[in-house]
Amino acid sequence: SVIQTIFSRPSTFDAIMGMYTLDDMAGLHPQQIWVNVEFDGFYRDHNLDIEDYLLKLPKDYPIAYISSPDISFLKSIGGKLKGRAKLILRCLADNVTETSVKKSYGEILKDLKSVKAFASGIMVPRNYVWPVNNNLYLLPPTSLVKDAHALGLEVHVGSFANDILTSYNYSYDPAAEYLQFINNPDFTVDGLMTDFPPTASGAVGKHCELFHVEKAKCIFG
Ligand SMILES: *[C@@H]1O[C@H](CO)[C@@H](O)[C@H](O)[C@H]1NC(C)=O
Ligand SMILES: *[C@@H]1O[C@H](CO)[C@@H](O)[C@H](O)[C@H]1NC(C)=O
């Protein structure tokens, strides 16, 4: 799989797979389910109480993670979940302002201790860990993963896709990019979120083979 130069996705696959509901997902009996609540305020505007919905889900739904960019939502549901799922702060671009604390996500992550008070981890765009310069060459990694791990926070990285422009250091190989996050001497992130799971899973599988890591330890997120 090689990065394409036309940055649009064909509509060919649109009707093949419908939108899955949470109940559909649970029906597939996965080991774990991760629920992302992008904007609690959107649901409230439509008179829907997402917190109530999540708290009333059948107890056998294996909800392992709940993520949201909304700190007030995470704090509120955290008080009621009684540890039933891990809460993850999903950070948007570092110059975007989080609506409840009115600070940018970049600023919020400068105080990881305050994040630890209400979340088990963070999910960040790729450039928070491996920034690129204006010419799309990789810069040295930030200390974010190490700093977060030192506090016991999980770090998940999102925004991967095979068909977006990425750093030239990966030589147009999306698998090389995933490996950069899990196979480097200094850190390994706890999870990868991607629009192309088979590529990520292939890269992680290859990593396990190469480094004789037990498969069980190679299941991310
Ligand atoms: C954030 O930065 C991006 C890239 O530099 C820019 O395009 C965007 O307008 C900025 N957004 C805000 C909210 O400042
Ligand atoms: C990315 O590639 C450039 C050009 O070869 C190199 O100077 C730089 O060190 C590379 N970055 C990383 C993090 O390896």
From TrEMBL:
Give every GP-PDE domain span: 1-204
Q: Which SUPFAM superfamilies match?
A: PLC-like phosphodiesterases
Keyword tags: Glycerol metabolism, Hydrolase, Signal
Per UniProt, the enzyme's principal EC class comes to hydrolase
Task: Write out the transmembrane intervals.
Answer: none
EC id: 3.1.4.46
Q: Which GO terms describe its molecular function?
A: glycerophosphodiester phosphodiesterase activity
Under the heading InterPro entries, the entry gives:
GP_PDE_dom, PLC-like_Pdiesterase_TIM-brl
Reply yes or no: does the keyword Signal apply. yes
Q: Catalysed reaction per UniProt?
A: a sn-glycero-3-phosphodiester + H2O = an alcohol + sn-glycerol 3-phosphate + H(+)
Q: Which is a GO BP term held by this UniProt record?
A: lipid metabolic process
Record's protein name: glycerophosphodiester phosphodiesterase
Q: Which PROSITE patterns match?
A: GP_PDE
